[in-house]
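Quick one: structure tokens for this chain, please?
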Amino acid sequence: MPQPPEVAARAYVLQDVTSRQTLASRNADQTVEPASLTKLMTAYLVFQALQNGKLSLGQELPVSERAWRTGMTGASRTFINVNSRVKVDDLIKGMIVQSGNDATVALAEGVGGTVEVFVEMMNRQAQVFGLKTTHFANPEGLTAPGHVSTARELSIIATRLITDFPNSLPYYSMKEFTFNGIKQPNRNLLLFRDPTVDGLKTGYTDAAGYCLIATSHRPTPGGDRRLLSVVVGTASPEARANESQKLLNWGHSAFDVVKLFDANQAISTAPVWKGKAASARLGRTAPVVVVVPRGQAAQVKTSLTRNDPLLAPLLKGQTVGSIQVSLGTQPWQTLPLQSLDAVPAAGWLGRTWDAIRLGIK
């Protein structure tokens, strides 16, 4: 691997979102306070509620005294008025662009009914993501006992947010938002410096230091490519921007993108037993893309492993093996091999005949 730059931060991780590879990290699994990076999980549940029809952008939510008082704690608030009603769209902008604690709590109450129920939802979603360290005590990120995460797990939350809800990115790329006659700039300085950066979230508490999750989307000869950096515990707003920019620039310049297969391209065909079809095409329902050190694309090789025998019923997208990608003689990445065809089970006679054949085989 190319040597990453020196990064003046307590912990960091750089992910290639396109290929889902980790390009560099330091102390990525160290427990840290997530500060306002917490709001990425809050946003995930809000966009999930929008997708499910539980919320709508034009819907007005009440501003409770709790939401208003939370906004009075710390420096981040949208200046929403207690006992007023505010559109969900404006609350989302307040939470994302201004990092408003008051807007965040209003949204949490709108989705969960109460903050306590919403926090339970956050922690359940963390379990769904497979996070081992992350635990939330509130939706806004103020310091609280047991409110923890890691740089790596924060990168997982951020990646899931922009992958599952790409419609969230226009909010994160907004440079300013005015509410109640008060205009506030986005604290992500990279939005003003790098036109390829379109998010994502800043954070700060005394314990966490200055934090930034940044994402950059740039075209390459191998296809469009998105990187995501998590920098935790820097010394200032300027430092978190500079260290993140350093990581993103290095990630884009030190690696080449190699597209191995298109989405739904058949890599091989395999026999299927006890099914209405005798075979199924195998590949990936998403493109197979890897990144390799600059100039080493010609050394990429692939091999397949199947979980034979493949028995019907098979679902489209079902994992039936793995794709091993190597760089020369070095293992590089392993991806699930999927069935590109749905194969229903055969009738009783077909299943019995294949059972006999399998027994002989």
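Residues 237-253 form the longest helix (17 residues).
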